[in-house]
Amino acid sequence: MDELNELERLRKELHLHNHHYYVENSPVISDREFDILMKRLEELEARHPEAFDANSPTQRPGSDIAKGFSQSAHIYPMLSLANTYSVEEVDAWVRGIGKLTDSDDAELCGELKFDGTGISLIYEHGRLVRAVTRGDGEKGDDVTANVRTIRTIPLVLQGEGYPDFFELRGEIVLPWEAFRKLNAAREEAGEALFANPRNAAAGTLKLQNSAEVARRGLDAYIYYILGENLPFTTHYEAMTAVRSWGFKVSDAMTRLDSIEAVDAYIRKWDDERHALPVATDGLVFKVNSLRMQEELGLRAKSPRWAVAYKFAAERALTPLRFVSFDVGRMGIITPVANLEPVLLSGTVVKRASLHNEDIVNALDIHEGDTLYVEKGGEIIPKITGVDLSARIPGAEKVRFVSHCPACGTPLVRVEGEAARVCPNKWGCPPQIVGRIEHFVGRRMMDIDGIGEETARALYEAGFVRNFSDLYSLEPEQLMKIDGFGRRSAERVIEGIRRSADVPFERVVYALSIPYVGETTAKKAARAAGNIDRLMTMTQAELESIEDVGPRIAESIIDYFSEAENRRAVETLRAAGLKMEMAADEAAEPLSDILAGKTVVISGVFSRYSRDEYKRIIERHGGKNSGSISKKTDYVLAGENMGPAKLEKAVNLGIKILNEEEFLKLIGDTTE
Ligand code: IVH
After folding, report:
1. Global pTM value
2. Which ligand 1 atom is at minimum distance from the Cα of 224?
3. Catalytic annotation on 301?
């Protein structure tokens, strides 16, 4: 492939992965796989200086900044740590410090490296005033309302001797037990699982609903204090004081006075970390003397006075049997490594996703290769590399299939995306069966008794060629499928009949519109109000729905432009499914108090969500707008409203209402 094309594609792909990781907290590939793609991009950029772009993922660190939160600038930049992987590397770092400071035996402080999400906490006069995520290191999201729910972060300090103004740095974590509970509940509800406690903690911190944050059981460990003229001489002393003010400072923190002590500390925790209640991914060694820390100072991305030691991920080597290619309900082809079964962190691993063509190519897998499989803190095993010494001479490189393994149709690659797709939507069995399976799922139409096998059997027997055919299914047809008797068949038919009560927004989700996940389906259904409107909305109208960008809008339009899909909708309508929002949810007018008024919503709310406020405004005759202008009549300001918006509203003399004032205005006095 042309290198410049590859370079552009990698940039797009890495931007997307950054978004998955930092914003959605749901990475699609492992850190290692990300590194492989990034390294390839760096290589290509070095070879093609003419293609320099200041916005390339190689130039810009990832950022966790999310929609819906106001940003706050960090007083001191939030840095990361340089990594080491052996005691020798830690020793080399210690010697480097010796040279820089003329001190041969700097005392160190050893700590656990908690695997959660970093936080900055500002305390003024003994009270928590602000909590901000790392963001891009310079500014982050203000998540104070959510952090206030974490019981191990004191809102008012205990003890005495704390400075008037200071900042703490720490890690927000979701303990293993809470993580397992959360994932079990998500599985039960048919929701996507969090890959590890780190993603779960980061995702939870960015929820718009603080009550839900409180329920999930976050915890926090503090590991650094910043401020002017702090009354401490060592980090250890400072952290001991922080502990006395009511914070959780890990008991694993200890002073280390030699490289032998560092070595023993590494050995101890490499073993004992498995028994900890929270995830850790290594240790951190810090120069204990604060004077020396200051002398050593900072590099661009990390301090010179601290270093991380990363535990080796649990890893196994196992031969590849073959690579298979799964076909999803949207036609996306996923390569899967089928392995000789191998035991890894207590479970037997037989299959691991290779995600997409770029990853298969970057790993450069050959037939019969022996592969490294890693689990780390993750649930899903990952292929992280190939043992080149075990490669069979002359073995063929594993190539991505060019045709659909299920129906033989030539695959297409969507512009700007890594996925290869089978375009044969209406003739490719696993796609159709996958859509039927999705349709009957718990969070969609919730029809019991039809799993993957039954869906496939119904399709193969010709009884159900599309999910809408379920509504004309007869018990006698089901009884022809293995495992069904009269009673079980009738029970399924009864379940199908009952699914007519499922609310409209779930029907929209059940339709399998590409890119329309559960949340988007809900928002689109509410914004449109009914199916006929959704089917005829223009690109611009669709894009005005929260969370709907150009790609999703286009996908909705494409979907309803297909005769087959429109036919399915009509069949579902005839079967009595809900094709509009329920009366109490629909935009029936409540009053005309806001008639002719334009309202801008900003910030986070406690009584209703932003979307609910949008509907409330419409139902009282008002118009909702995204940006403040001379035409704005009111700003409905929640917590954490952006300072720029606030300033603009004040300058234009627009009336700013808080949640209570707004509810009073529209006459909503219910509690
Ligand atoms: S010290 C300027 N200590 O690891 C000093 N960081 O990979 C900054 N982390 O961004 C960090 N445990 O979010 C420090 N005991 C610990 C830590 C720790 C976890 C996180 C932190 C940091 C990241 C760097």
Report:
1. 0.62
2. 1
3. no
